[in-house]
Specification:
Elements lengths: L6 H4 L11 H32 L5 H24 L3 H17 L1 H4 L11 H16 L2 H22 L4 H75 L7 H18 L5 E3 H9 L5 E7 L4 E3 H22 L3 E9 L2 E8 L15 H12 L3 E6 L5 E8 L2
Parallel strand pairs: 2-4
Antiparallel strand pairs: 1-3, 4-5, 5-7, 6-7
Length: 393
């Protein structure tokens, strides 16, 4: 059963878009599968052991109830792990567990004088623990309180000793659930701390890459400036040199063309305007969606994003077999994200020939050169998505 929302566990304010990191996602996935597996093993074991523990006259009734619980445990596991129909599965589970708790008069032998040793309590105890790792905290707490009340009622109906006799053992349901919830939260916090440390390290690495790219670009710009305008001005100003004006004009025009072609774009650029300008030159029909204002970014990064997007769109026109593509752009925290998608032929990204440089050089390397990254997700027959990311630092 898929966990429905995680706001209670992320601690994010209402409406905030909390994106779990890889460590948190892996832990939640592991806890989810572990909870379903341990619940299935324990409940099925309890159902199997319940039948031989009762007197022969009680066996048919107990076998029928235990068999129903066993079958449901298998069904619950299959649907729970796959995440299909979570609301329906939860509703049926509540009904089955209610019936199990209230059937103690039929399934628990009179010889089991201590309520804490009954198979029903063992079964619902592991269910209470599993709830803490499957559902959000408020829902898990409500389900455990329901199990506690139902177990108490079922045991009272089974015995004439009164509810005070049953209460101490039944209360362990609440203790076990609280311990499971505390352990889950503890490991979850550790996972988030690991994600935070990894994100901070990645941010420092990106800042270093951007700073290094800026320094490299500035050096190239200064070298080009020295070889063009500076050299021409020095030639003109040198004493004893007689240079015809038309020669100077021709040389200056060459210098300007070279500086325009190889200039280092400094400062910042309006990203939305740059992207729209690039899109205006594309032969495809492009559906564009900007998720909020994109703001300004470092000019070389804007050039890399636009150039990579343009190359991705040209790949769609050349290879996808469709004439329509989708471009989305937006910000997530300190990152700018641009995606180019199509519903065309797709391809196997692991089998791109070595002589095909479009994605590797014009997209991946171009983004890496400014401290960003590009990823390609494609499968034959399922289209292609190119995702471009650049940190806003």
């Amino acid at each position: 059963m898929a966990r429905e929302g995680h706001d209670e566990r992320t601690g994010a304010p209402p409406g905030a878009a909390a994106v779990p990191g890889p460590a948190e996602r892996e832990f939640v996935r592991f806890a989810h599968r572990y909870a379903h597996r341990i619940r299935a093993v324990v409940v099925i074991s309890c159902a199997l052991l319940a039948v031989p523990a009762v007197p022969p006259a009680q066996m048919p009734t107990t076998a029928a109830i235990a068999g129903a619980v066993l079958v449901w445990s298998v069904v619950y596991y299959r649907f729970g792990v796959s995440g299909r129909r979570p609301h329906l599965v939860l509703a049926v589970d509540v009904v089955v567990l209610t019936g199990l708790c209230l059937s103690q008069r039929l399934t628990v032998p009179d010889s089991q004088m201590i309520h804490g040793s009954t198979w029903v309590l063992v079964a619902i105890s592991i269910v209470a623990v599993a709830h803490q790792m499957i559902h959000p905290a408020p829902l898990a707490a409500a389900l455990v309180l329901q199990l506690f009340a139902l177990d108490l009622l079922g045991a009272v109906l089974d015995r004439s000793d009164g509810w005070t006799y049953v209460l101490p053992n039944a209360s362990w349901l609440l203790v076990q659930a609280a311990l499971a919830q505390g352990l889950y939260r503890l490991v979850l916090r550790r996972s988030r701390a690991a994600d935070t440390a990894a994100a901070q390290t990645a941010a420092v690495r990106r800042r270093h890459q951007v700073a290094q790219a800026q320094r490299t670009a500035e050096r190239e710009y200064l070298a080009t400036l020295h070889d063009t305008a500076c050299a021409t001005l020095l030639m003109v100003s040198a004493q004893g040199q007689s240079i015809r004006p038309e020669v100077v004009r021709v040389q200056a025009a060459k210098d300007l063309r070279r500086l325009a072609a190889e200039r280092v774009l400094t400062g910042e650029a309006d990203l939305a305007r740059e992207l729209l300008a690039e899109l205006a030159d594309q032969p495809l029909r492009v559906r564009t969606a900007f998720d909020g204002p994109l703001g300004s970014v470092w000019h070389p990064a804007a050039a890399a994003l636009c150039g990579s997007m343009g190359e991705a769109l040209r790949n769609v026109a050349r290879h996808a077999g469709v004439d329509t593509a989708t471009v989305r752009a937006g910000r997530r925290g300190d990152r700018v994200i641009v995606t180019v998608g199509d519903s065309g032929a797709g391809f196997d990204v692991t089998r791109v020939p070595d002589h095909r440089y479009g994605l590797a050089r014009s997209v991946v390397d171009r983004m890496a050169a400014v401290g960003g990254r590009a990823t390609v997700d494609s499968r034959p027959g399922h289209g292609t998505e190119v995702r471009l990311e650049w940190p806003h630092v």
